[in-house]
TrEMBL record:
It comes from the Bacteria. Part of the ABC transporter complex HmuTUV involved in hemin import. Responsible for energy coupling to the transport system. Keywords: ATP-binding, Nucleotide-binding, Translocase, Transport. InterPro entries: AAA+_ATPase, ABC_transporter-like_ATP-bd, ABC_transporter-like_CS, P-loop_NTPase. This is ABC transporter ATP-binding protein. One of its GO terms (molecular function) is ATP hydrolysis activity. Residues 5-239 form the ABC transporter domain. The keyword RNA-binding does not apply.
Length: 264
């Protein structure tokens, strides 16, 4: 399948420093690409570059074959939907209005947008939140509404920037289970996280090998692998400067970090 999103040799500099150096990746519908790396590795910079919010100093980003910078917001919204760490809404609009607004690229009546928004809210079991002001929802409820907005946008690729960062374990699990459903329904997922274990909630036994993992360190690609690769723990350990071991828990592979000293 063609890669709808292609980042080729992206480099971002701030003064003498390279925040991103020659990073490439491709995401097609049905792909799941996880970008992992420690704080400051350049993950969010890569996300901003992929979304066209930051122009790389070198390299290129294309969406459906066109330079991302040449796309209007409406055109870009037809291909890429973005789930940030936290919903940024200062106006007390309702959850329904928020989700309906994600359909702005469609030329349709307000009523039609709201009908589609209700369907999207129902898909994430959040119909009961429809008339609640979004500013009054808990972090987990807001992220569920944000996932409904992603669905309502009907874009073939979703970009997630550590969307579970502020959520408790139960809410994290729920959010990534939803992401897994979206992936299985055929969407392409580019997911940035410093905690690889959240991905275990998105996959089903047997699908680990389909999750590509790109490790970033100091702005560079440190490794490219798959979730089921035997040496993934070693790769992760190297970029996070710990020892990492993959262990099976209830048929899922998770990674446990241990200090370097105790192993030596
Ligand atoms: N506008 C900026 N000016 C200068 N340095 C910046 C700017 N934005 C980011 N940086 C630096 O670039 C590096 C990469 O930042 P980035 O936010 O992409 O990392 P990250 O991997 O997403 O980190 P985290 O996991 O902490 O969110 C960091 O060292 C950061 O301090």
């Amino acid at each position: 399948m063609t890669s709808l999103l292609e980042v080729s040799g992206a480099t971002v500099r701030k003064g003498e420093r390279a925040l991103l150096e020659d990073v490439s990746l491709r995401v097609a519908p049905g792909d799941f690409v996880a970008v992992v790396g420690p704080n400051g590795a350049g993950k969010t910079t890569l996300m901003r570059v992929a979304l066209g919010l930051q122009r790389p100093d070198a390299g290129r980003v294309t969406v459906n074959g066109r330079d991302v910078g040449a796309l209007s917001p409406r055109e870009r919204a037809a291909f890429l939907a973005w789930l940030p760490q936290r919903v940024q809404v200062s106006e007390p609009i309702t959850a329904l209005e928020h989700v309906a607004a994600a359909r702005y690229r469609f030329k349709e009546s307000h009523r039609r947008s709201e009908e589609s928004a209700l369907v999207a809210l129902a898909r994430v079991q959040a119909e009961a939140l429809a008339s609640r002001p979004i500013t009054e929802l808990s972090g987990g409820e807001q992220q569920r509404v944000a996932v409904a907005a992603l669905l309502a946008q009907e874009a073939p690729l979703v970009l997630l920037d550590e969307p579970a960062n502020f959520l408790d374990p139960a809410q994290q699990l729920e959010l990534y289970a939803l992401v897994g459903q979206m992936w299985r329904s055929g969407l392409g997922v580019l997911c940035i996280t410093h905690d690889i274990n959240v991905l275990a909630h998105a996959m089903r036994a047997g699908s680990e090998g389909r999750i590509r993992v790109l490790g970033l360190s100091k702005g560079r690609v440190a490794f490219e692998s798959h979730y089921d690769a035997p040496d993934l723990g070693e790769h992760l350990g190297r970029v996070f400067s710990v020892r990492m071991r993959g262990v099976e828990v209830e048929n899922r592979r998770v990674f446990v970090g241990m200090s370097l000293e105790r192993g030596e």
